[in-house]
Design brief:
With 375 residues, the chain is α/β, with parallel strands linked by helices. It has two domains: 237 residues, Type I PLP-dependent aspartate aminotransferase-like (Major domain) (Aspartate Aminotransferase, domain 2, 3-Layer(aba) Sandwich); 120 residues, Aspartate Aminotransferase, domain 1 (Alpha-Beta Complex). It contains 13 helices and twelve strands. A seven-stranded mixed beta sheet has the order 1-9-8-5-4-2-3, sandwiched between helices. α3 runs parallel beside α9 and α9 crosses α13. It is globular and about 65 Å long. The chain binds pyridoxal-5'-phosphate. Pyridoxal-5'-phosphate binds next to α4 and α5.
Length: 375
């Protein structure tokens, strides 16, 4: 069994994907081909923002947003302690200080209470300027924007949505990657909408920021590529990736998002009462980047993983270490003004199971039976 079966996805859509790639090969417009503009339009329309600026990957997308806002030395950026490394890495990369915030026990997403407390403490201390909140749509579910937006507004901060795992998710029909002042996503192959290499995108309704993003993404270009008015990056989405994404966005909309939601219901049906199954808030739709259960403790998790592995079923730990305990941050400026107990607990107990739109019901059943046996 595959954790995320990209081969089955390809085989199911081979003709369309091959043709899309072939068209680019024949035109040889590998950088800045028409497909790039076309996919940007489709992506913006899908998530419901005015602009989509594609780029080389989801990490660059976050960095570009911070560059546009001029975030740097002395600025505090609030980041969940339970996320992929990029979310905090980019903060350090632009010279600002990541301030780690605890997460909610049920959704694994940034805890609004913990965020409020962290902001108040940073402001009271007065050493750093509170500037940005990066909320992550972890495992496919939107962060709690109903509450986070109120806090961000009342504290006069900027909201950056890290939707790398959240593409396709929504709150009451409003889609992920449209909640931030700037929002980002990743097209890393294993994400809900993945390409065949690295890719990413930035979303915003703000015309000025969109123009700056387009400049920063190509060496800080001015009127053209050889007129450089600021220091930027080389961070483009290439034409082949855009062509693949055009096909994949179509099947994502038509079929895949619904399929992963069926898969997750099957899992939850079979696992409820046995392990803690994922909680999706009322009115929220997840795009199931991961289906993550909570085991009783790390011993039980070890046992489940081992027994699954014996039957050829992969499982993964996202994430085994809180951000504030990552080696990279030890020599750096970072701040932990609040307790991070939920994150520490989750890291010991969380376990992600195979999840993708092409799973078979027998495969879900087999996985769940082994988990029952391992209890
Ligand atoms: C994958 C991921 C990223 C980074 O995306 P890349 O395209 O791999 O650079 C950022 N944030 C989160 C939460 C992610 O899961």
């Amino acid at each position: 069994m595959e954790f995320r079966d990209l081969k089955r996805q390809y085989q199911n859509n081979q003709e369309e994907i091959d043709q899309a790639i072939q068209r680019v090969l024949l035109k040889t417009n590998f950088i800045s081909g028409n497909e790039v503009l076309e996919i940007e339009k489709s992506l913006a329309s899908y998530v419901g923002t005015k602009h989509c600026i594609s780029c080389a990957n989801g990490t660059d997308a976050l960095q570009l947003a911070l560059m546009v806002w001029g975030i740097g030395e002395g600025d505090a950026v609030f980041v969940p302690d339970f996320t992929f490394f990029s979310t905090a890495e980019v903060v350090a990369l632009v010279g600002a200080t990541p301030v780690f915030v605890d997460v909610d026990e049920d959704t694994f997403n940034m805890s609004p209470e913990s965020l409020q407390e962290a902001i108040e403490k940073v402001k009271r201390e007065g050493r750093l300027q509170a500037k940005v909140v990066i909320a992550v749509d972890l495992f496919g579910q939107s962060a709690n924007y109903d509450e986070i937006k109120i806090i961000v507004k009342s504290q006069h901060l900027m909201l950056l949505e890290d939707g790398a795992q959240g593409f396709g998710g929504a709150i009451r029909g409003k889609r992920n990657c449209s909640f931030g002042d700037i929002s980002t996503t990743s097209f890393f192959p294993a994400k809900p909408l993945g390409c065949y290499g690295d890719g990413g995108a930035v979303f915003t309704d703000n015309d000025d920021w969109a123009e700056l993003l387009r400049s920063y993404r190509v060496h800080g270009k001015g009127s053209d590529k050889y007129d450089n008015v600021r220091i930027g990056l080389n961070s483009r989405l290439d034409t082949l990736q855009a062509a693949v994404l055009k096909v994949k966005l179509d099947i994502f909309e038509r079929y895949e998002l619904e399929a992963v939601n069926q898969m997750s219901s099957e899992y939850t049906e079979k696992l409820k009462g046995i392990v803690k199954t994922p909680v999706v808030l009322k009115g929220y739709l997840s795009s199931w980047a991961q289906y993550s259960i909570l085991c009783k403790d790390s011993e039980e998790r070890e046992r489940i993983m081992r027994m699954l592995k014996e039957k050829g079923i992969p499982s993964m730990i996202y994430y085994c270490r809180p951000m504030h305990m990552q080696g990279a941050f030890q020599g750096l400026k970072y701040s932990c003004p609040v307790e991070l107990k939920v994150t520490e607990k989750l890291c010991k107990r969380v376990l992600s199971l195979p999840m993708h739109p092409y799973l078979k019901l027998e495969e879900i059943e087999e996985t769940c039976n082994i988990i029952k046996e391992a209890k």
